[in-house]
Structure formats: C-alpha cells, structure tokens
Amino acid sequence: MRSFATAGEVADAAREALAPEVWEYVCGGAGTEATLRRNRAALDALLLQPRVGRDVSARSTVTTFLGVELALPVMLAPIGTIGLFDRAGAAGAARAAARAGTASFVSLLSVPVLEEVAQTGAALFFQHYTRSDRGWTLEMIRRVEAAGYRGLCVTLDSAVDGVRERELRNRFDRGAAQDRPNIAPGHDRRELQAKLTWPELAWLAEQTELPLLVKGVTHPDDAVLAVEAGAAAVIVSNHGGRQLDHQAATIELLGPVVESIGDRAEVIVDGGFERGADVVKALALGARAVLIGKAACFALAAGGEDALAETLERLRVEVDRTLALLGVTAPEELTAAHVRVSPRPFD
After folding, report:
1. Count of domains in the chain?
2. Parent domain of 155
3. Which of 128, 219, 239, 338 is catalytic?
4. Any catalytic annotation for residue 219?
5. Which of 60, 102, 317, 329 is deepest in the core (most CB within 10 A)?
6. Other beta carbons within 10 Å of 271
7. Is residue 326 part of a domain?
8. Does 65 reside within a domain?
9. pLDDT in tens, 302-311
C-alpha cells in the first residue's frame, strides 16, 4: 500500500484516481457553495486558547458515544455513494473503523447490503431515509436490529435534493451511478422524505429499543423537538453544504444546540472536519465526537480500507498532540474556554 503522510497527499491521490465528474461530485456543494465554504472558514476562524505549565505527559484520546467506546473522537459518516470510491463500499469502511477502534455509520443507500457490512464485526450505526410505507420501515428496522447495529439514525435535512450545480454541469446522476441493494424494487419513493415530521419520528422511536439518532439538526429548537420525539443523540449537520445553500457553519451552530438540550441527549457534528485540531474545537464546544465524510471518501479513493485506517490513525495522533499543546490530557477536559472566535477571518 502507498502510505500517505498528510491529508493533502491523500486528497491529491484521490483526485488522480477518480473520474473528473466523481471528483467534482465529492468536492461540491449546493448552489453557490457558500455553506460548503463557510464550514471550512468558520473552523479556521475559531482559535485555540492553550494553557501551559501543565503535566500532559500521560494522555488519552478515548471517548464514548451512546455507550460505544471509541479510541478517538472521530467516526465515519454515512455515505450513500460510497461504492464510487472503493468497491468494498461500506464494508471496507467498517473494517477500517474497526481497525482504528471507532464506529462507522452505514447509509441505507450504500453498498453492500447492511447484513454483509455487519459481518465485519465493527461498531455500526444505520442511517435511514423514509422511502416507503410503515410496513417496509418496520422490516428495515428489524433487519437492522437482527444484524447487531448499535443505533438507528434518521436524516431530516433532505426533504428534497439541494441544487448541486457541479452535478448538473457534469450531467452526473448519482442515483444511477451505484446500486442500492438495501432498497427492494418498488420501495424507492423519494418524495416521501418530504412528508417526514416529528410525530412520525416519535412513532419510529417507539418501534425499536435501539437508540434513535436524528441527523440534520441546525436549530436549537429542532434539537429540543428531536429529544422530545425520543432521540438519544442529535447530529448537527448541514449535509456538508450539499443541501441548503447560505446556511451557517455547523461549528457555529454546535454550541447553541448543545446548550438547548443539555444532558438529555448526546451531540455529534459533521461539516468540513479535516484535521485533529478541527475535532478538538468541536469537542470544546460540547460534541462527543465528529463525523468525517469527504475525508473518508478521499482516503477510500486513494487507497481503500488501508488508506482510511491510516487516515483515522493520523487524526488520532493529531487530536492527541493538539490536546497536549492545549494543556489537557483527555477529551473530557476540554471546555469552551479552550476556544475563541477570531475578530478577523484567519487571524
């Protein structure tokens, strides 16, 4: 396997490996891509505030999420088109996560079938979209439960597709680019996602003993509604800037969401996280962990499971070193006092 020393090298290798339209697809966002750019800019504008003269000789990056122990506070985001980046799909990603000691989210839209991914033995969460009637939904839940998944994640920010101009320009149809073996013929009714409401989510929570996770929350009031509907965890996400353009960055929204629900549910976040310092900023603002999507796609395209496992280990090392340089020894020691907003962009 080719080894990569930096995230930039991984991205370069991924660009070489992918067809131009697939590279544009994975890098793109909705509309003017303002949300996509803001995710990164807001992370860069958030400054770290270290304390020195502390004993940081013994450190740990271990944390937990919904009772699952994680060797590092980074998990793999659900990627519906994961097969475009590596033929092993979600199974290869799951094996990489297991090697790194963390968990992986598996999308309803991904390959291979959810049971095959579960055979990897990794800690897995299943990400669900509304696609058919309640009977089919119950069938899916029972399959997820039987396969040993640790939680059921429902995405709420996809009532319709965002207008993604790169895909339009390239005439790229991601729906036709990969099979969707988890969805039986006749059940892929995309329009039903627009009818998903809080009462339906509450019904879903009542149908399973698995923890319910709600993804796509960006408003504190919606975080409260998610908890009231039965959510055990909230995922602050703007879909990587790929749905609604001109949104705030997720790192800007994280603190208010955490404050709104307190200790009633755990909070994780995604949206432009690329380095260990990015992860530490999210932890300081109250996230249990972050999800990586684009960085995972780059790694899979660059070198499959091995490159993704290497990327996760590099993130663990970066988190560890950032903690030490901040003057703390573990994720739980981080507080909002460790970050401040720059008075000027990229100060």
Report:
1. 1
2. 7-52+71-340
3. 239
4. no
5. 102
6. 33
7. yes
8. no
9. 999 999 999 9
